[in-house]
Amino acid sequence: MLISMLLGLISGLSIFFVAILIMSKTISRAADYQFKKWVSIFTTNPIMGIFVGGVVTAITHSSSGTTVMVVSLVNSGVMNLYQATAVIMGANIGSTFTAQLISFNFYNVIPHLLFIGVLFYYLNFHPAMKQLGKFMIGFCLLFVGIQIMSQSMDPLKHMSSFQNLMISIEDQSFKGILVGLITTAIIQSSSTGVAILQSLSFQGLINLAQALPILLGQNIGTCITTIMASFAVDKNGKRAAIIHLLFNISGVVLLYPFLDSFSQFVSQLTPLNPMRQIANAHTIFNVLNTLILIPFISQLVWISQKIIR
Q1: What Cα–Cα distance (Å) separates residue 122 from each residue in 20, 74, 119, 127, 157?
Q2: Position 38 in a domain
Q3: Nearest to 216 by CA among 256, 171, 169
Q4: Within a domain: residue 244?
Q5: How many domains is the chain partitioned into structurally?
Q6: What residues contact residue 140 under an 8 Å CB cut-off, 6+ apart?
Q7: Residue (of 22, 25, 31) closest to 139 by Cα position
Q8: SS3 category, 43
Q9: DSSP assignment, residue 232?
Q10: Residue 12 forms part of a structural domain
Q11: pLDDT tens-place string over residues 114-163
Q12: Which of 17-26, 155-164, 269-278 has the lowest mean pLDDT?
């Protein structure tokens, strides 16, 4: 049973990764030098920086990709640390788009969308239609991957060890944060980590109170990719990566004392939809964190300069 469950999980994850890759590659055809130059020009204002970071990440489905791009732009001198901080904040909000997308029930129309996508891609349409078809295929595969993951995790209902772990996470939130941090650092994708949580909630294997600490840990774990990318850049590039880490840790520290109240508030918004609860918690946390820390962009930059001299 365990082997078949793991194989199902790996299969679902693989399809999910491929879906994200297809959609990202389709969109990132525009991500050439001119695109990067456009990003740097339109991020001189913090609000615009947050907006650009959010939109780019929502389109590419990768906050890590956006923050790594920010590190490279800072390293090349195209963007300063103040601009970078705003874009990083926006990237965190944009990263919640995938979770919101998954929480909608598209499953009834997925076969039809997939058929249309395949037609657009393989028939001799205009190149733009071909790219649209490719994106639609990726979009459909995203939900196929989630469905396979959800079904593969069903046997966990009958495993006492898993149930005990979930109970201990609800009682000891720090353990959940650690689980989220480590797993996201390993799979290098917070979107995938959140998707796994949503799959577990869909099967009734985890509630919001248990998922929240893991979700917070995932927000820290996603910084590992940016930290790794910063090894190859100069001091300012490293400072941008540190700002990303500081921003996410600050959010976790600020919310941690209010986890129970936050969980109850989010649960009441959509009491009958556990997948949406996780998506909403992810979004609200990142929006609140950004609103609270916008006035402290200068302080985040200053701390990063003290850490990386």
Answers
A1: 20, 40, 5, 11, 42
A2: no
A3: 256
A4: yes
A5: 1
A6: 19, 110, 113, 114, 117
A7: 22
A8: coil
A9: T
A10: yes
A11: 888 888 888 866 777 887 888 788 878 877 876 787 677 667 666 666 66
A12: 155-164
